[in-house]
Amino acid sequence: MSRRPFHRAGEDVRRHDLIAATLDCISESGLQGATVRQIAARAGVTPGLIRHYFSSKDQMLQDAYREVMTGMTSAVVAAADGDQQSARERLHDFIVANLTPPVADGRRLSLWAAFISHVRVDPAFAEIHRESYLAFRSALEELLAEVLAEAGEEPAPQRCRELGIAINGVIDGLWLEGTLVGDLFTDNPLPGIAIRSAEALLGGIVLAQDTPSS
């Protein structure tokens, strides 16, 4: 197990380094295997320092889950942040970013699988999941409203909501398939399938002429 360099910096940076070490350990050993001692060793600090930043292991795991979820949303929002692009091009890039690395990769899958069982049984994890889901869908619905307006259609909130739920469902399903058995889709890459599905849901609005093949 390699150690992460622990920076002598501000409180926020130190806390971020500890969360990063926590995620490394969870990715390798799961939630039960990621002990405070193992995380401290990975971060190159003492267990006592971890207790200075987190009141309990549960709090540390909750913050780590929040980091995973917000990090994925931030990555796809950033991919769709092209000032010179049309709304359709930005929605295209948003969808593709969900189904390509670094959002769609084995490490993300391992972390998701480790955390997701807690969502149904732990109210704190459930709330983090709910907040993250709503933030993701809000970003998606905003893009959809811009796409509809750009196409000369009424971006009614209810329609954007229903489209957001449907397209998010497509993304989630393809993300899971792609990270589990991605080798089965080399002849028909999943980003292209997602784009064509979104275009069908949008009533034929074309998001981009050229869709990345991976």
TrEMBL record:
SUPFAM superfamilies: Homeodomain-like (SSF46689), Tetracyclin repressor-like, C-terminal domain (SSF48498). Residues 35-54 bind DNA. The keyword Aminoacyl-tRNA synthetase does not apply. Residues 12-72 form the HTH tetR-type domain. Keywords: DNA-binding, Repressor, Transcription, Transcription regulation. It holds the Pfam family TetR_C_6. Transmembrane segments: none annotated. This is TetR family transcriptional regulator C-terminal domain-containing protein.
